[in-house]
TrEMBL record:
InterPro entries in the cross-refs: Cyt_trans-like, NAD_biosynth-regulator, NadR/Ttd14_AAA_dom, P-loop_NTPase, Rossmann-like_a/b/a_fold
Protein known as: ATPase
Domain Cytidyltransferase-like: residue ranges: 6-136
Top-rank taxon, per record: Bacteria
């Protein structure tokens, strides 16, 4: 049996890694992929390990998580190569015949392991990408992120503000401009189907429905996702109409993190419809929303002016968000759990 080895951080996994695995499999019967991580890294090793198992569902590929806090460069430790040899051999299920890499360390490492080095796309001509580039600018290199893990890299932008400030109109415009998805306000869809007037008991299913819509729409989004309100809005209206609190809702309204927030001002005319009744409380509701944003520790970009001015301001802001590196909170266990619906 010819046993091959690939090791790396996969920080994050990208299509270059998948190409490396695909080519390596042509040269061996069984392949072991070691996912090496350090505690200090932004994307947890456990998550990368789970990603790689999902991306490589082949019974002849062993994906193994290496938690050893080893030195990262030969100059970091006098016994660098011996340390890594011990780690690799202790995690490898079989003797290693071939080492596959797209890195310059392949030759010296193979020499230490006593195996053959087979380089794959060392110059990155076939798949011109690196994990560093994706960490620094995920949306710029979106095409190189494997589809199953893209939802973790989608930048979510919430449009917040009281009723009749143009959130829906602007959400649609932004989604069209940036060729991606937007999440409509679930409360409106829910209440328009409801034969009876809104009740306090409606708020929990509204909150859960909105969160499900966010999670599901993220899966098919093109790097960005615009949300016409979020659970913070639901919390504000629950307090306004019933003066009450739902712990499940409060935890997520205050705990969920987003990549950006557009706060829409009340300087456009209020328009009545069957679900709007707070036209006389615009200033008070604006204050409530601003207080809620502060309570949730959310920064925001104020959008005001006529509809065209709002659109220009929002596009400028979103273009800045697009250039930002990966956001550490996107990969935390806390945020992942907060988006799960029990």
């Amino acid at each position: 049996m010819n046993h091959g080895l690939i090791l790396g951080k996969f920080y994050p996994p990208h299509k270059g890694h998948l190409h490396l695995v695909q080519e390596a499999k042509k040269h061996c019967d069984v392949l072991t992929v070691l996912v090496c991580s350090l505690e200090k890294e932004i994307i947890p090793g456990e998550l990368r390990f789970e990603w790689m198992k999902e991306l490589l569902p082949n019974q002849n590929i062993n994906v193994i998580w290496v938690k050893d806090e080893n030195p990262q460069f030969p100059e970091d430790h006098a016994h660098f190569w011996q340390i890594w040899k011990r780690t690799i051999e202790s995690h490898s299920p079989y003797p290693i015949h071939s080492l596959f890499t797209s890195e310059n360390y392949g030759d010296p490492l193979a020499s230490v392991l006593g195996c053959k080095h087979i380089p794959i796309d060392i110059d990155r001509n076939v798949i011109p990408i690196s994990a560093t580039k994706i960490r620094e600018s995920p949306l710029k290199y979106w095409e190189y992120i494997p589809e199953p893990i893209r939802p973790y890299f989608v930048k979510k932008i919430v449009l917040t503000g009281s009723e009749s400030v143009g959130k829906t109109t602007l959400s649609k415009k932004l989604a069209e401009w940036f060729q991606t998805n937007w999440v409509p306000e679930f409360a409106r869809e829910y209440l328009e189907k409801k034969p009876n007037p809104m009740e306090e008991s409606d708020f929990l299913p509204i909150a859960k429905g909105h969160l499900v819509s966010e999670v599901e729409t993220t899966k098919s989004s093109n790097g960005l996702l615009f949300l016409d309100t979020d659970l913070l809005t639901t919390k504000v209206y629950l307090e306004r109409y019933y003066g009450s609190e739902i712990p499940w809702l409060t935890e997520r309204a205050l705990g969920l993190k987003y990549d950006g927030s557009l706060f829409l001002d009340i300087d456009i005319p209020w328009e009545r419809d069957k679900l709007r009744d707070l036209g006389d409380e615009r200033e008070e509701m604006k204050t409530k929303f601003l207080n809620a944003m502060e309570e949730a520790k959310r920064d925001y970009f104020l959008v005001k002016g006529n509809y065209l001015e709002r659109e220009k301001l929002a596009i400028h802001y979103v273009n800045q968000i697009k250039e930002q590196p990966i956001n550490p909170f996107s990969f935390t266990i806390e945020q992942i759990l907060l988006r799960k619906i029990e």
